Queue: 3 jobs
Job 1
Amino acid sequence: MENNVSHALYILQEPVQYMALSFMALMYIIKIRQMLKKPIPPEKAELKGDRVVGALESLTNVLKPWSMESTRNNMFFYAEFMIFHIAVALTIGATFFIPLVPSLMTPAVSKVFMLFMGLAFLIGLRRIHRRLTVPEMKIISSPDDYFAISLMTVFFAVGFVAMWMWISGSPDTGWMWIFFLLTTFFLLYVPFSKISHYILYPFGRVNFGRTFGGRGVIHRDVKKQTWNPK
Amino acid sequence: MSEQGEKIGANEERKWPTKTEFTPEMLEEMEKLLPGTLNRVVTASLSGCIHCGMCSDACHYSVSIPDDKTLVPAYKADRFRKWYKSRYDWIAQVFPSFVGAKKLDKELADEMYDKLWGGCTMCRRCTFNCPMGVDYGMMVRAARSIMQKVGRVPQHLQDTVDTHYNAGNNMAVPQDEFVETIEWIEEELQDEEGCKNFKIPVDKKGAQYFLTLNPREPKYYPLTIQATAKVLNAAGVDFTISSRYWDLTNYALFNGNDPDAKQFALWQAEDVQRLECEYLLAGECGHGFRALRWELPNWVGGVPFKITSVMELMAKLVLEGRIKTDKSVWDGHRATYHDSCNIARSGGVTEEPRIVIRAAIEDFVEMEHNRYDSYCCGGGGGALAMPEFTPRRLAAGKIKADEIKATGADICLQSCHNCTDQLKEIIEHYHVNAKVMNLAELLAPALVL
């Protein structure tokens, strides 16, 4: 595919994106630095497992639905989660591939992207419905929660249509403009919203893994039996 | 025999001032205290929640009391998180209500008190079901520590800590009375068949294991001490009990006061070194085991001795063939095992109790949720020391009562004294036909001497 667009759209797709991306990166660096400055609780107990291995295992928790009861008992929900997040990665990827490597986005490849975007859109609608109707969700939801899922759902819908028109030979459409304007907005807004949870994910999982890995809960080294008087 | 009549506990009596209401001065003090509680785990937990709701089915409160949605873990944690966000969330600085941030006022503080003292046992079952790894236990303890410092702490819980501080054990059992009780238990043990030469040494220097007890044992459940001593003697274990700091409990783990937690741990550590024991041996007590095994070294900066538990030691004795058992003594009975949160999830001990159980009884049935998936019985986190929350505590125990009932067991085994009391109460409350016992009480009668 080729990306024959107007100069104005090119500005939006490239320099503006790079500036927004730089801003987002700066915000993330500040966030990560603030977190890294926080003291880690000490661990001086004799360990039953490996804290490093525990941390690594914990980091891959998202890929192991059997490891938590909450996902084990809700496999359909987990499948939706995976599709949604794969769609996030692909949609973000599209914002780079379209302007920079359009040849990669063959019709076949683009249709795969669109499939995930379409499914993610439907999943987004389900998630909005869930948050509005399930009492346990309503009681814990803030405007940021509703806004985040709504924004992502709209993003997928716009991306789907923009790509459809792009592979149909219309790369410079209003939909593509909206898609990249939304992307710019995301890059500026996400560091401040709950959507940035992927930056905090490693901290929470590493904390969990180190604590419970060391205690032999998620990674038990059976040789380290503390009752062995040797 | 040790020197007796010496002062056990702190030199000066203390009664921590408690308050029944939050005042503006207290709220102001809490604002100053907040930054000091924010280590990396607490901060990541406060900022990492994505409100996905995956924790709602993990909590015994929200599962047992489904009509009260304010008991969903994320809601409870948000009582603290709203305040945190008002201080540290970027968007909250310009648009607080957008992210659910709220400045600390009396209303929010009262909600924090109600939910984080009376609506959470810090069991961490939600943590184990959280995709973001939010550590509710640490987070709730941080909130409790702030409230405790300004005096807004459940009175009876604080009294328990004060008693421990003043007397060296949380039931103020005097040293001479304790030693007499141990001597009496020793006599009772020696009257048992095959136990004529069994001993419960007190203050024996150089013993391999320094056995610790929950104060409820000498006060109300001496037979558990007798059972434990019988097992240890039968296996030829070289152990002793201290006449001084024999109490393994540490209720400062529940009330969040780190200086007190450290003090109780320090007394214990010094006493182990006084008697020159190789192992500090935690008796069958849930939070006590965790406080000794996993928290004590951190509170005191490391220890020169090893720490283990009676559960793990009994399993070792079984596996090494140092005790022989006759399971027929429990014929006609069915047992199930309740995995206490501080022993299993927070302690990493799940298989050792089962080794002991399978050596003593034939008919053993697991509950539907066991090991790290076990539901909290509802008695943890100091809940039994907060009588103002008793109705909710009993209601929260329904899921556990249902699971015990479903096994058809007439013996519910566990290794925690808070669990003992809670299980007994919910068994009565929900009409479950089961007797609560600890592992030593199961194993001792099955010993072949």
Job 2
Amino acid sequence: MSGLPKYHALKVDAAKCIGCTHCMKSCPAEAIRVVNGLAVIDHERCVDCGQCHRACPTKAFYVEQDDLAQIKSFKYRVILFPSIMIGQFPEKYNEDRIYEGFKKVGFTHVYEVEQPMQLLIDSVKEYCIRPDSIKPAISTYCPAIVRLIQSRYPSLTENLIMRKAPHDLAAHFAIERLMLEGARREEIGLFYATPCIAKIASVKSPVGEEESIVDGVINMNHLYNEVMKVIADGEEIDHSEQRENLSNEGVLWSLTRGESRHFGSRSMAIDGIHNVVRFLERLENDQVHGIDFLELRSCDQSCAGGILLTGNRFLTTERLERRAKRYPSAKDISNTVLKVNTEELKQKLIIDSISPKPVFIFGTDRAKAMDKMERAQRIVCFLPGIDCGACGAPNCHALAEDMVNNKAKMSDCIFLQQMWVDEDRIKAKKAFLNVQKKWGTDRFKADCKKRGRRNEGF
Amino acid sequence: MKLSFSIQGGDFTQAGHPSSQVKKVLKQLGIDGKAIKSIVIALYEAEVNVVAHAYSGTMEVEIEEHKITILVSDEGPGIPDVELAMQAGYSTASKKVREMGFGAGMGLPNIKKNTDELLIKTEIGKGTTIKMVNYFI
């Protein structure tokens, strides 16, 4: 499987970044280093979880997105969004008003992605009961988790459920429905409103697929602002037809336990990427037994905690839980309402393969790799072990590894440098210049309104 | 390359640290996931054996290009009947240990299953040393 090149929407704004190391320390993939006073992301390692974006006190991380204006080039303009989008809006706006808002922004069709849910539920169930599926079966819903497993837990790749996510389901569903209405494929423009950067990456360069079905991705917070500009209080326009396949299960899908409640006799749901990392570590060591289904989500409170959301994650969850109660169960929505060939749609939910992509390997030559690791091990003995981050690496061990991979120098460690000064091995002036080179001159200036301090926001 | 760890008898909260460390190194060397899994399972079981039965112990790990040798030595009661202990389900673990979810009598059988070579030396009242060797490509 070659697939598309790995796309990352997250970028660092050099004008805002102060190299404060908050992002570097929060990254579960050790993918960030501070170089010349700026955070630099290693795209091979990055899993798009967005922890750095969350941790940044100066909002230096920004998310690239497609231009909303490009929807105009299509006759049928479809906005696909997960149900949590509805949970963002103030209570006074009901679903129909929000749908009307999307129309005013310029879309012709509005589809929440979690429909028709029973198809996906059945498909995942079928996969899980197959004798060759490896337990615990791990959901592929959260793209950051899939990438984390591919890169950091490659042996668990075989546990991943070879089924696509709701946004793929809805995209195919929307196309089928519109073509039934007489639309030609090239007239249909599909746009996905994303709650997080991992979904952007998975839509732009889907794991296990050759090309993306979606024409553009819009950040949910941006779309929220656009809709809020045009949304009106009084209007009553009925858009319920567009939600006729939306179910209780669908509305809850993106929340924690949205999936796990349906599958396996012993299932678990874990949210928050650092929690997931700790659990996968155990799972990989074969210290977890008897669990047959795992729902793993990168964000705290799952998609309600996505970094591109506007609302509070707990309020969003609460609103969706109440909303779900008004919808019928997915199994009570009959296939005749779907109006499309469900067998064909089901076929489209199958992922052919997901291959492991280990990124922590020290090169392919085993002897050389062992030599490097032994050197790194010896270097660690000389480092202070307090993981201060002043070298620009997230911890002493990572620095040692960077050193043997020729990505860092011994003098990057300020403790080693200080020792060398004491032993007269380098001049104090030279040591100072080294640190200044790493962090820039501003870090040494007295300034009560220093960036970073000013932005820490108490 | 060599790695060494000390193991504290009775302290289940710390169990698993050597497994994770060794696993990290093996992954960085690009060793096949299935081979790593066997090694890590054997290593963890051996570690838990020390924690559950002995007073203290050490673990010496030596990784070569196509081979890993793990030596786990403990100061403990020793194993009175090794053959019996190798049988699945046989356990001398205390009630307290079993209540914590350990001591199912699968330790040594699991180690045997997941290692290419296994050598057990034990002396009653003194302690046990086990040597495990796994090969990989």
Job 3
Amino acid sequence: MAPLLELRGLQARYGPIVALHDVSLTVGEGEVVALLGANGAGKTTTLRAISGLVSKTGEVVYAGSQVRRATPERLARLGLAHVPEGRGLFPELTVWENLRMGAYVRRDRRRVKADLDRAVEHFPWILERRNQHAATLSGGEQQMLAVARALVARPRLLMLDEPSLGLAPLVTQEVFRVVHELNEQDGLTVLVVEQNAQIALTVSHRAYVLEVGRVAVEGSSAELREHEGVRRSYLGY
Amino acid sequence: MLPLAFTWSDFFQQVVFGLAIGAVYASLALAIVLIYRTTHVVNFAQGEMATFTTYIACTLTANHGWSFWPAFFATIVIAFLLGAATERVIIRPFERGDPLTLILVTIALFVIFNGLVQWIWGPEQKFFQGAFSPKPFTIGGVSIAHQDIGVIGVTLATVVVLWLFFRFTKLGLAMRAAAIAPIASRLMGVRVGWMYAAGWGFAASLGAVSGMMVAPIIFLNPSMMQSVLVYAFAAAVLGGIESPVGAVVGGLLLGLGTTLLGAYVSWIGVDLQLPVAFTVLILVLLIRPAGLLGRHVVRRV
């Protein structure tokens, strides 16, 4: 079966600085794939390149078509949901308005209603706080709202950028538990960038390790957990 | 000017007139706030765009035999398209530029629209037949012009419709989102550029409403909106440049304040209304730099 997302020889630069030298990876339908690596390895840039926020060379094949030149707006319509670094919430909009923004690309009103209800099932606290500004939420709640909002778009591919950033360990676990649940129950495909290799390798099926803009190691998450170099550099034992 | 003996009926008449003029300031101030919030541009051409569209309304009624209301709504639509096109064609190339460049661009727009008006319609005054009669009716001993009530009603209705749009529609929500976080909005599938254009469109429509409301009171001429613009800026700043409610409250307060001062403080009269208004404005801003309803923006780093 053809993968849902395939990157071949991706290169990207910010002005004169090359951020990605050569990144090739695939994400199959129904998979959870983790993208690991140190600060500055190019993880965030890879996601930004996929969703059209950064221009690049190489190939990006999504759902069978070449989308290297597609804009973020267009990719969102094709079912790509990107929860960016810093979560990308609208701080001065209410929790409920943020959630409704997730459905901006949807045309089927009635099913949107059902999906909003489902998002609330996953995160029941949303209902109590629906009229609060998103800025007033805690870090963990903001991350969950960002995930909930992405789900309302009914994505084919969910991309999460460092969901654990700034969160307490227990909250991080909660976020990844939900990601795992969504994958198991709904077959949601996920590409997650994470510095916390420990937790990312527990939830993902496969993983790639980026080092200075290149894929250094790749394999199943079970293999990577045993991999000598990965263990030493990213798992710390 | 000799102050007349004070009577309550005269006072209420002045209050209603002040609110009507204030409503005109308020809608133009709201247009300025709308553009500032969506694109962070201070649009000095807002008043001249309003004058331009009011001339279109006047041409429709005076030369083509339209009655007021069809011309009113047609002009609102034309103004929307004009505003949106202005953003797409003229503002967009400077979108990421220096704020000073953008100010210069809107000043250029001011000159261009003013020139267009004089070139197309000539410099002389025109009579624009409004929808409401300037004749008064009497209620509880107070005589009030139909026109004043009409102006207040139409302007406030426009403001309410706009508020409902931003509050309850998907497009209104997306426009607010695009103004707050453009990149996050793009990731949600929002075409941010079109949201900016729509913001300019709505602002131009609001300006058209204020122009069409004030023209029957003060005669239509190429510089009609220039003093209104000054008051509208004052109102927007008084309200806290980012606050729509503040702009409306600020506009009404300014209209009311200047009218009452002009009527009851003999040395102010008509000539000193503007300087006095601005003295008050400066005093308010000394005490509350963020405006009456503005917030201090605390940026997290």
